[in-house]
Fold this sequence. Notes:
Order of helices and strands: HEHHEHEHEHEHEHHEHEH
Mean pLDDT: 92
Radius of gyration: 20 Å
Shape: globular
Helix content: 40-55%
CATH topology: TIM Barrel
CATH superfamily: Divalent-metal-dependent TIM barrel enzymes
Number of strands: 8
Low-confidence stretches: 1-27
Structural class: alpha/beta
Number of helices: 11
Strand order of the largest sheet: 2-1-8-7-6-5-4-3
CATH class: Alpha Beta
Amino acid sequence: MSTPFSRRSFLVMSAMLPLSLRAFAASSVPVGLELYSVRNALKDDPMGTVRTVAQMGYQVVEFYAPYFDWTEPQTRDMKKLMDDLGVRCHSTHNSNSYFTTENLKKAQDRNLILGSTYVVMSSSEPKPGLDGWKEVADTLNSAADQLKNAGLKTGYHNHELEFTPVEGKRPIEILAKNTKSSVALQLDIGTCLKAGSDPVAWIRGNPGRIKSIHCKDWAPGADKGYTVLFGEGSADWKDIFAAAESVGGVEYYLIEQEGSRFSEFDTAKRCLEIFRVQHPA
Length: 281
């Protein structure tokens, strides 16, 4: 009787294994660094900076606007380095000017080389009023259509402006309502907090669209603001992570620091150490 039991046990365990692996993968959200956090080092030595960031333990990097001016060989060299280091680039930050017809093709090509998924608009300069924000939404929808055939998606990154009411509505609401569901809403926690909004409520109100989060903290006070390290500010990270992973659809986290009392690399290292305490793997 022991043989049939063992066989059944083996089959049951084999059937359950993929489910457990999928559950583990779903709960293991990688953490990366928005490379604006180390912008001075990146400007002087892009390859060395990415290598240093990877050695700290970051799993993901997000390149910002200057990547757009790399040559194709430079971009391929960076991808090879990331492959060698085991680091991924899931998204890039792009000026709204990169979303013109001629520039979007170049952004598409560079993102494909880097292995990116999301071409994120990092800021915009809308015309006054809510109609201006609707035009931004139209631009994002058009980009989504153009990028789709290449296997890429687009997204939008907020600052304080998007959470500051215009004509009685927050522009971020206009963007969420008037863009395709495939357009990711990359949430910057610090700027959301400074604008007086609740990031947890925003995540829960937009299920499945918060594909990535900029883990930037903020605290009131002229000597604090965005210079506090991750975990030192007003953000309730426990609730933010819970909302992001239960309903937000988050695929990766990105630590971002605009500056602190420490050097760029020391800041990035300290923030990652605190993150691992706040969000253990």
